Amino acid sequence: MVKIYILNLLLIFTLSSNLTASSSGDSFLPDKVYPNPASDYIYFQTDSVDRKFEFEIYSLIGNKQNYFIQIPEKGLYRFEIVQLQPGPYFLSVTDRETQEKQTFRFHKNN
Predict the structure, then answer these.
(1) Residue 100: CB atoms within 10 Å
(2) I want to staple 109 with a disulfide (CB 3.0 to 4.6 A). Which of 20, 39, 47, 83 is the partner?
(3) φ, ψ at 58 (rounded to 5°)
């Protein structure tokens, strides 16, 4: 099972590296999601403050999750994840204009 987990990390890293390399100069990459692991909130931070994004949170098995989002400042998005069960999740971020998509894995603690 450890080998599968490591392979998944390598696959995600490779995919992210390829997206960064093939992206245009005005891409919204790189961005970050923190803290990880999290218990109450996760934050998505980007330098692309003028872009509009669509967000989705999925469980490990692909079920779409409900969330509450706040935008405390330009380029910073705060997701309330208190209601999620502990475990791994994915935050999918899509640029509405270019349809460029990023997926971040995070872990919800108790």
Answers:
(1) 17
(2) 39
(3) -125, 145
Q: By the 8 A CB rule, do 89 and 106 touch?
A: yes
Tokens at residue 7, please? 């392979």
- Could you give the CA distance from residue 69 to residue 77 in angstroms, rounded to a whole number? 7
CA 23 to each of CA 10, 13, 36, 99: distance values in angstroms, whole numbers, following the listed order: 20, 15, 25, 12
The pTM of the full predicted model, rounded to 2 decimals, is 0.72
* DSSP code of residue 38: B
Token pair for 28: 């919204």
For strands 68-73 and 64-65, give the pairing. unpaired
User: Is residue 15 within 8 Å of residue 29, measured between CB atoms?
Assistant: no
How confident is the model over 12-65, as pLDDT tens digits?
333 333 333 233 444 555 689 999 999 999 999 998 888 899 999 999 999 999
